[in-house]
Amino acid sequence: MFEGPVQDLIDALRRLPGIGQKSAQRLAFHLLRASADEANALSDAIRAAKERVAICAECFNVSEGERCRFCRDPRRDGTLICVVEEPADIIAVERTQEFRGRYHVLGGHISPMDGVGPDDLHIRELLQRIGGGEVKEIILATNPTVEGEATAIYIANTMKPLGVRVTRIASGLPVGGDLEYADEVTLGRAIEGRREL
Prior knowledge:
Elements: H1 4-14, H2 21-33, H3 36-52, E1 54-55, E2 62-63, H4 69-72, E3 77-84, H5 87-95, E4 101-105, H6 123-131, E5 137-140, H7 146-159, E6 165-168, H8 184-192
Parallel strand pairs: 3-4, 3-5, 5-6
Antiparallel strand pairs: 1-2
Helix pairs in contact: 1-2
């Protein structure tokens, strides 16, 4: 254990997700070696993010204003909503350059083991958005985990009576992957989600 501010810094860094003791120590000593300008720039960036970043009132993405850039963009297709678990998932979808609709961030996934149920997510708000009548399709882009699948099934079952089309992103083999290393579930989904060439 170090003393004083060094240990306080290590302890603060350890509270970040995915950062263990050794990583926290490496980061702390990197910051201590950094110039005062670099350390202050990091501190200023954290402070500015905490002060200026809010949650979009429409889709629950991170935003610098009341509505995020996707919700403000009139060129986005308002009849199509891609439902994701977290704001970072939006960036992954945007990198594909294939989706031109709007988003809805759930704020997690259903996980009874962690005490997270449907009422703890932004599902009610999604239903309200659909209730306006403009939305024609919901694309469920939750993670391909047990919790993500359970969340997608719950939302799909909730949406069916509303007459809106509900689709799920395909999952399967990554480009460059070998069939012999694929697990049964992934390979099964790849076969199930096949498309005509």
